[in-house]
Amino acid sequence: MATTATKLGAIHHKILDLLKATPTGLTIYEIRDQIADLDVQQHLDKRVRELRYTHKVPLRRIGGKAVYVYEGEREEGLSDGGHISSALRAKLLHAAHGKCQMCGRTIADDDIKLEIDHKIPRNWGGLTVEENLWAICGLCNGGKRDFFATFNDDEMTRILAKDSVYERIAETLRIYEGSPTPAWLLQFVANADDFQEDWQKRLRELRYPVIGYEIAASRRKNPAGKWEAAYTLREWKPLPENHKFLIKEFERVNRKARSN
């Protein structure tokens, strides 16, 4: 699916200025702390994502934190035809150190061949940029492709385009309502826009009384015979529009009660 660039506005330029002033990078929370407008804060992940059409703003793991780093302007605006340059392909393969970044098997021990794959598929809105690419083995790539083919592309594009991590998790649980949702799939959608230091905390927060989701945890064997965690949503209901505020307020009240 081809993607078109968004015209940059004042908030985009403010984010760029913050990143340029901090070469070591900023987490999404640090960027949010420096932007006072609450409405902008609620859509900040989307604004950062839109910057990637015209600027190189990869998400890096530095010092145990996931930070956005400014690396300059793109020579040309990003028109995503899916082409992966030989230089980028070589860089990704080198970074993998001969190991599948999905299952952990290696070229040396398991005689696998690594392939470059879009973490978020292009037909779900994923971009052909370094942070959305990884090196995985042919078995994982084929299995992932076949599994993702069981989903409706339009529905997943809609879910992954949501700015709220809570909405992305909730809407994915809704697809499986009453049945176990693989934990790795929830982690995948949680990290679609911004890396979550603790995506499972976001899941737990959906269980808060102010939200009221009943989510049961379980373990099951996947088709490869390995045990994996899964979560089942008992009954779907729409998230309140102010769900982020409700969660923060619930935590604030609880902290105050514990301190008394």
TrEMBL record:
It comes from the Bacteria. Keywords: Endonuclease, Hydrolase, Nuclease. GO terms for molecular function: endonuclease activity; nucleic acid binding; zinc ion binding. Pfam families: HNH (PF01844). Residues 87-142 form the HNH nuclease domain. The keyword Disulfide bond does not apply. This is HNH endonuclease signature motif containing protein. The keyword Nuclease applies.
